[in-house]
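Run: sequence + D-ribose -> complex structure.
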Amino acid sequence: MIALGSDHGGYSLKQEVKAYLEGKGIPYKDYGCLDETPCDYPVYAKAVAKAIVDGECDKGILICGTGIGISIAANKVKGIRAAVCHDTFSAQATREHNDANILAMGARVVGPGLALKIVDTFLHTEFSGEERHVNRIRQIED
Ligand code: RB5
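>> structure
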């Protein structure tokens, strides 16, 4: 189950991500926001982060204008590793090396075509499980 969240700046790209996930038969839960009325990204970052640490969802996708504010907020939650990615190389690397559990993107930075490729890469790349990466992730969590 994929947890989705955005602020008003990311709302329309989140709708594109939802259509993409539906097309692929990938289940998701939308934790808001629900329209383009100005709102506060930490609210949705925390809701998605909580869904993951509570085990309701496996991974999350967070979208704001830049991807930055919403990722900073999500990374305040212990156990969350949110990565801002605006290219597929980073999306692959952050899964393989950091075991990132949230992908953050900026709707004012990337168009929907690239964003959906990034989503696809993030969701379909496994953590390498290599000892050096496991050790580094443990140090983040300590
Ligand atoms: C909202 O205007 C904007 O600040 C927000 O979407 C995000 O880019 C913050 O990091």
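>> summary
The first strand starts at residue 2 and ends at 6. The chain has six helices and five strands.
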